Amino acid sequence: MRLLLVTLLITFGLSFHASAQEAQSLTAQQTYDLVQKQGDQILFVDVRDPVEIMFIGFTDAVDTNIPFKLADRSAFLSDKGRFAMNTNPDFAAGVEQALKDKGLSKDALIVTMCRSGSSRGKPSADYLLEHGFSNVKYIDHGFQGSGAKEGKKAGMRIVNGWQNDGLPWSMKLNPEKIYQP
After folding, report:
1. Is residue 14 part of a domain?
2. Is the pLDDT of residue 177 over 60?
3. Which of 12, 17, 56, 77 has its CA at a distance of 20 to 30 angstroms from the CA of residue 173?
4. Please, which residues have CB within 8 angstroms of residue 10's CB and are 6 or more apart in sequence?
5. Domain that holds residue 34
6. Average confidence (pLDDT) over 60-74
7. Which residues pair with 42 in a beta bridge?
8. Which residues partner with 85 through β-bridges?
9. Domain total for the chain?
10. Where in the sequence is the signal peptide annotated (predicted)?
11. Burial bucket for residue 163 (CB in 10 Å: 0-12, 13-18, 19+)
12. Is residue 169 in some structural domain?
């Protein structure tokens, strides 16, 4: 009976630990404020493909651009009308190196940002948690934000996100921060 009880406690403890490993979100403004106040203590990573950044814009507030997914230009998905996006096999190692370059450990706060927050921001943060990083969050609504639900601009990304919150960004890329394999 004692062995059964210990087994159940261990199993419950492990499943509880796994469910607690889901990344939490920050707003773009919260992230910007953190960067301004504690920038030397956190790692802020833009996880978009650099070609996407080239056409949408960039903020120099990030420490680095390490893509979580890279567009595979040899695999067009006709049914989805886009190229396949494959996980960057060097993503976790790149983040770990960026932490080291900044003098930080894998326990430091890492904030990830993609275009919208959902397709790469949260998944990249969860991926890092699964790979031994202990303090990872993502920007809800990402860099470009959400699409308007109605009106003349329905579907256009004009709601929330880094750009729409009026935070600093430009179309100019910083060659020292942009991913160059």
Report:
1. no
2. yes
3. 77
4. none
5. 22-164
6. 97
7. 109
8. 71
9. 1
10. 1-20
11. buried
12. no
Rounded to 5°, angle at Cα 119 from 126 and 138: 45
The answer as to whether 116 is a domain residue is yes
The DSSP bridge partners found for residue 113 are: 46
Any domain includes 46: yes
Q: Which residue has the tokens 């991913």?
A: 179
DSSP 27: -
Report CA Rg, the chain.
Answer: 18
* Residues of the chain above pLDDT 70, percent: 89
Cα–Cα distance, 142 to 61 (Å, whole number): 14
CATH number where 116 lies: 3.40.250.10
pTM of the predicted model, to two decimals? 0.85
Taking only the tens place, the pLDDT of each residue in 119-142 is: 899 999 999 999 999 999 999 999
- List of residues 6+ apart from 69 with CB closer than 8 A: 47, 49, 85, 86, 87, 88, 120
How far, in Å, CA of 49 to CA of 45, rounded?
A: 12
Phi, psi dihedrals of residue 64, rounded to the nearest 5°: -160, 165
Strands 109-113 and 136-139: parallel
**Residue 140 · residue 117 · CB < 8 Å:** yes
Q: Which two tokens stand for residue 40?
A: 């030397």
Confidence of residue 3 (pLDDT cuts 50, 70, 90): very low
